[in-house]
Amino acid sequence: MELLVNYGVELDARDGFNSTPLHRAVENGNDAAVRLLVRKGVDINATNSCQETPLIISSRKGHGKTVQFLLEEGSNARLTTKNGTTALHVAVESENKAVVKLLLETGKVEVDSKDDHVLTPL
Fold first, then answer.
1. Are 60 and 91 in contact (CB under 8 A)?
2. Which of 31, 58, 103, 118 is the most buried (most CB within 10 A)?
3. Which CA distances in Å does 104 have to 4, 19, 42, 109?
4. Are 67 and 51 in contact (CB under 8 A)?
5. Which structural domains are found in the chain, ordered by start?
6. 11-28 per-position pLDDT tens digit
7. CA dist., res. 106 & res. 28, Å (int)
8. CB proximity list for 111: less than 8 A, separation 6 or greater
9. Element housing 55 (H / E)
């Protein structure tokens, strides 16, 4: 990944799902790539075709270290998908207890946020 960055590859390029390299790195649990991309200034709150942010994807996947890093780097935990779900919603739905705890401890999530089905995360 670092080699591609050094050769000037577009770091916010989009694929057919409107996902960026950061979305893919988060999805695949590639912490080194996530850190490199964020430190190179990519949009940490970029959304794909489902309006998922990297934080929402990492919360669903249970990648606690990535969730913590993204939050520390300024990821917005209150952004929602096109269905109104937040990072907390998907962490709860995926039964990722460590990520749920981490999100709650930050104080950056809304526990009363309702999705399109009028369901709150908790």
1. yes
2. 58
3. 36, 27, 26, 7
4. no
5. 2-106 (1.25.40.20)
6. 777 778 879 999 999 999
7. 24
8. 88, 104, 120, 121, 122
9. helix 54-61
Looking at beta carbons, which pairs linking 103-108 to residues 24 or more positions away fall under 8 Å?
103/59, 103/67, 103/71, 103/77, 106/71, 106/77, 108/71, 108/77, 108/78
At residue 86, φ and ψ (nearest 5 deg) are -110, 175
Task: Please count the residues of the chain.
Answer: 122
Supply the pTM of this predicted model: 0.90
Instruction: Measure CA of the first residue to CA of the last residue in the chain; give whole Å.
Output: 38
Tokens 């749920």 locate to 100
Residue for token digits 């790195």?
25
Residue 41, token pair as written in the block: 């200034």
Residue 109: is it exposed, middle or buried by C-beta count within 10 angstroms (0-12/13-18/19+)? buried
